[in-house]
Amino acid sequence: MTDTPRPRTPIDDLADRYVDEYAALDPIAATAIGVQGHDDRLTDYSPDGVAERAELHRRTLAALETLEPADDTDRITVAAMRDRLGLALELHDAGLDLAPLNVIHSPVQDLRDVFDLMPTATAEDWAVVARRLTAMPDAVAGYVESLRRAAASGRAPARRQVEAAAGQAEQFGDGESGFFVILAGQADRSGTADGAVAADLDRAASAAAGAYRDLTRYLREELLPAAREEDAVGREEYALWSREFVGARVDLEETYVWGQEELARIEAEMREVAQQIVPGGSVQDAVAALNADPKRTIRGTEAFREWMQAKADEAIAALADVHFDIPEPVRRIECRIAPTNSGGIYYTGPTEDFSRPGRMWWSVPEGVDTFGTWQQTTTVFHEGVPGHHLQIAQTMYRSDLLNRWRRAMAWCSGHGEGWALYAERLMADLGWLDDPGDRLGMLDGSAFRAMRVVVDIGLHCGFEAPAEVGGGRWNADTMWQFMRAHTLEDEAFLRFEHLRYLGWPGQAPSYKVGERLWLALREEVRAREGDAFDLKAFHRRALDVGSVPLDVLRTALLPPTSP
Question: d(Cα 28, Cα 41) in Å, to the nearest integer?
Answer without folding.
Answer: 8
